[in-house]
Amino acid sequence: MLESVVSRSDNRRYEDSSDLCGPESSIRLAPMRRTGIFVALPAFVSALLVSSVAAATTYQVGPTRTNKNLGAIANSLKAGDVVEVDGNATYPAVTFEKSGTSASKITIRGIKVGGKRPIISGGTNTIEASGDHYVFEGLEITGGSFRCFFHHADDITIRDSVVHDCPKQGILGADNDSGSMLLEYTEVYACGGGDKDHQVYMATDEVAHPGSVFRMQFCYVHDANGGNSVKSRAERNEIYYNWIEGALYHELELIGPDPAGGVDASLKREDSDVVGNVLKKTSNFFFARVGGDGTGESKGRYRFMNNTFIGAGASSTAFRVFDGIDSVEMHDNVFWWSGGTFNLMRTAEASWVAGEQVSGIDNWIRTGSAAVPAGWTGTLTGTDPLFVNAAANDFTPKANSPLVDKGTTTTASPAGHAFPSPLAKPLFHPPRRTLMAPGTAEPRPEVGVIDIGAFEYGTGPFDAGVPDSGSPEPDGGSSGSDGGMDPDGGSSPLADGGSSSGGSSGSSGTGSSGGSSGSSGSSGGGSSNGGVGPVAPESGGGGDDSSSSGCGVGGHAGGGGGALLVVAAWLLARRRARAN
C-alpha cells in the first residue's frame, strides 16, 4: 500500500529506485483517504525527482571551463556523475575518494580536442582511485614519480587510455583495499624500471574483496623501461586477447599475494586463465613465470590456450614454474622464433602442491625444442609455422600453415585439478601491435577446426556469444619481491621494493599527447564466481552503460523522472478537481 510506503519514508533511507518497486508501491487511490495521499504523494514524488537529478551531474573540466582541473570537482562526485575532460590540455595529478555504485558508476571521460586526449601528468600518483565503482576512459596518463595510476578500490575500469613514461610503476594496485579491475583497449609503454617496477602490477585484497578478478583484454603493452610487462598477484587473472611485448624480464608473471603487504598468502588459491594473446620477447629471458617469485606463492592453477609465443634468443624458455603451484595446462599454443628451438618449461624451482601436474593438447613447437612436458599429447613439430609475415609481426597463419585446423576446443585439465570457469575458446583476435578503439576488436572467425595460436586463418562466421566469466571486482596489486629474476633461473630473490600500498597523490607535471580511439560504455554484469563482465568488445561512444531499472528513476544526467512528473501532474489535477 502506498500509505505504508509514505509513512516508512520518514524512517527509511531509499538507496535506489529498486526500493520503490515492491508490491507496496502500487498506486491504488480508491481505498485511501485524501489526507496523506494528496499531501504526502506530491512531496514524495518531488523528493524523488530532486534526488534523481542530484544523483547524476555532468561536469565539464578544461582550460576554458569553470572547473580548470579535476581536483576542483573530485570531492563533489556522486554515483552516476560524469566528468568530461577537454583534450589537448594538461592537468595535474588527482585523487578520487568518493564512490559510485555498481549500478551507477562515476565516469571520468576524456573528450578529444584536435584529435588529442587530455593529459593527466605528474604527482607521486598521477591518478589515485580510492573510491569504488569508477570508469576512466579516453585519458593519457603520464609522469607519476611512483605510480601513474594507483588502484586501491573496487570495480575500477580503465579503457581507451594511454599510460606511458612512468619511471616506476605504470598501473599498480595495492595489496590492501583493492577489488576487481577491468583494463581494456589501453596502451601501456615506457614504464617500469630495474627488477622492482613494472608496466602493469596488480593484486587483490582477498579479505576485503574475496572473489575479485583482474581482467586485461584488448590491450597493447610494449617497450618497458624495466621489470615485467604484466605482473599480478590477483586472486583470479583473466588475460584475454592482448599483444604483450618488450619486457626486460617476464612478459607475464602471475603469482601469489605478497606477505610483506600484510596479506595471508595461504587464504586463497590464485588462478589464471590466459587465452588468445601474442607474447613476444625482445630480450633473452623467460616469457612467463607462474607460481611465485620468492615471496608470495599462489599454489594456483594456470591455463594457457591459443597463445602465440615469439622468442628472441637461443635460450628462450616459455614457462618458468616457481615456488608453490597446483597445475599448469597448455592447449593450442604455438612456440617459435626464427633462429632456432625453444626450451618449453623450467621446473627446477617448482614446489608442486600434489606432485607435478602438467597437461597440454595440440601445441606446435619447433623440431628439436627441449624440456617438452611429458604430460603434453598431440604435440606438433616442424621448422616453420608459416606465418603471413613474421618479419612484419603478422602472425596470422597462411593457408598452407601447419597450424590451420590443427587445434582443439576439447581441452582437459590434469585429473583432479580442473580449472574453474575457463574461457571455452577464443572469440577475438588480439590487437595487431596497436591501440584499438573500443568496440573494434576483430572477431575470430570459425573456419573448420580451430587453428593453433592467437590468430585464425580465413574468413567466415564467428561466435557472437560471450564467455561465462562474470563480473570480477579487480583487486589492486602490490610490489613485493621479484625473486630470482636472473636469466639462469636461480632461486635467490631480488628485492622488489616492498608493499605498494603506501603513497599519495602529488603535484602536477607535464606530458605529451598521443594515442587514438574513442570511448565506450562500461562493462556488464557479474556471475557467481566474480568476473569482469562479458569479454565481447564494448560498443563505442556510450559512456557508463549501467542504467537504473525498476520504477524508472534514472541515474544519468538529463535522464529519468519524466514518467514521475506525468504522474505527479495527474495527481495534482485530480486533487484540485476533487477539492472543487
What is the secondary structure topology, with strand pairs?
Layout: H1 2-8, H2 34-54, E1 58-61, E2 82-86, E3 90-91, E4 94-96, E5 106-111, E6 119-121, E7 125-129, E8 134-137, E9 140-142, E10 147-151, E11 156-166, E12 169-173, E13 181-191, E14 200-203, E15 214-217, E16 220-222, E17 230-233, E18 236-240, E19 243-245, E20 252-254, E21 271-275, E22 278-280, E23 288-291, E24 300-305, E25 308-310, E26 317-331, E27 334-336, E28 343-352, E29 358-361, E30 364-366, E31 376-377, E32 380-382, E33 387-389, E34 394-397, H3 562-579
Parallel strand pairs: 1-2, 2-5, 3-6, 4-7, 5-8, 6-9, 7-10, 8-11, 9-11, 10-12, 11-13, 12-14, 13-15, 13-16, 14-17, 15-18, 16-19, 17-20, 18-21, 19-22, 20-23, 21-24, 22-25, 23-26, 24-26, 25-27, 26-28, 26-29, 29-31, 30-32
Antiparallel strand pairs: 33-34
Structure explained in plain terms:
- This protein starts with a helix and ends with a helix.
- It is about 10% helix and about 30% strand.
- The longest helix is centred in the first third of the chain and has 21 residues, at about 35-55.
- It has about 575 residues and is mainly beta.
- It has a domain at about 1-55 and about 560-580.
- Helix 2 packs antiparallel against helix 3.
- Mean pLDDT is about 80; it is low at about 1-40 and about 465-580.
- The chain is built from 3 helices and 34 strands.
- The protein is globular, with a radius of gyration of 26 Å.
- It has a 30-stranded parallel beta sheet that branches. A two-stranded parallel sheet has the order 30-32. A two-stranded antiparallel sheet has the order 33-34.
- It comes from Labilithrix luteola.
- Keywords: Membrane, Transmembrane, Transmembrane helix.
- This is Putative peptidoglycan bound protein.
